[in-house]
Design brief:
alpha/beta, Rossmann fold, homodimer
Chain lengths: ~220, ~220
């Protein structure tokens, strides 16, 4: 098969995905649900951030999570323990990203009327998830202080398409060559609009700013701004 | 397009890849080159491990590197500084893995006669690269002590198809909940044959065992075992 034919096939699959994502977006909007697509490398701390968020903000904010995992239900079990409404979406055929049809199936198991915020925890991967619209209001990209601070330059599509960047594991700053200033400059050079938060899910430092950002984003969504 | 049709298309693309990979494998075998496909999450330290390896083993071992990157030439530039013969393979269309055609094009820029070991530094991603044969003798999967120790369970295909697992950043052990024992048990439960090495590219601890493994693997390859 020629590369051109393969690209055509991919385009068709993506366009079908976009139609499904658009239906999801309408459904979330009608119910005033803030939907966030959480993306990162494996191990940056998506599940830890969700644990901390569920543990603190529930039940005053009613939070649902669609936990994407290639193979296990480890994340779903961790989140179940932290509270919240968890639905697991194991990717079909071990795919490297969630798509809108998986999210559609997962939402059918959720009582959307009972939710304020829906997190979609994507598969750990900085490449493929950037291309797949899941009907979210925003992508939030996590990066941890133990990765390279050039990640925004190496995976620009993900940082360009995200609304916020959460820098996790700041308790480990200074133990590697990672520079907060460099990662922020790199990220802003790709996307000048990116909201940036620094925190440690382990120590709890900086989590308040993240919670504020969530409350503010929900408010903006509901006031239609 | 139906999911079935999409799967058929993917199968055809993979089978064409396997044919190219098989040609590469023959070519590397004829020249006695040990070829290793280095895979990991973004930020686990593939480039750092290669820097340390080039810095120490060159020129007594003649090492080439095909550095895969989605977008930048950051890794290729770091490796150039460390010595060795570096060819960059930026993935076509920002793909999330290298394929055998990219490696074929990259090898055309290398003097294979002048190499003992060829590293293929794959794109940082624990999912997709596991499916694409690049003609390598072995996959080596890196994992760092700041990721989750359940990674082998979450990304089993990658650990099943790897011959060795390098646990990097052991200088950061104890600063998170990562347990060496747990990650090893998890990895061995997926693949009982996995060779395991623990090291820190930053402190240098454990690098000797990795260098020994490289020398031993090259010797085995050349003695046809």
């Amino acid at each position: 098969m020629s590369a051109e034919r393969n690209i055509q096939v991919q385009k068709k699959v993506l366009s079908e995905n976009d139609q499904l994502a658009s239906k999801l977006r309408t459904e979330f909007a009608e119910r005033g649900i803030l939907t966030l697509n959480l993306v990162s490398s494996p191990g940056s701390g998506k599940t830890s951030l969700l644990e901390a968020t569920l543990g603190t903000l529930q039940p005053s904010l009613r939070i649902g999570v669609i936990a994407g995992d290639v193979q296990t239900d480890n994340d779903a079990r961790r989140l179940q323990a932290a509270g919240g409404t968890i639905v697991q979406a194991i990717t079909t055929g071990g795919a490297c990203h969630l798509d809108a049809s998986m999210v559609t199936r997962a939402t059918e198991q959720l009582d959307l009327e009972a939710l304020d915020v829906l997190f979609i925890e994507n598969v750990g991967n900085l490449v493929c998830p950037s291309s797949w619209d899941l009907g979210e209001d925003a992508k939030v990209v996590l990066i941890s202080c133990t990765e390279g601070d050039d990640k925004p330059l190496k995976y620009p599509a993900m940082f360009r398409r995200s609304s916020a960047m959460v820098i996790n594991k700041i308790d480990l700053l200074g133990l590697s060559d990672f520079s907060l200033e460099t990662v922020k400059n790199n990220a802003l050079s790709i996307n000048g609009e990116l909201g940036i938060m620094e925190l440690s899910c382990r120590s709890g430092k900086g989590l308040e700013a993240w919670f504020d950002w969530l409350h503010r984003s929900l408010k903006q969504k509901r006031s239609g701004r």
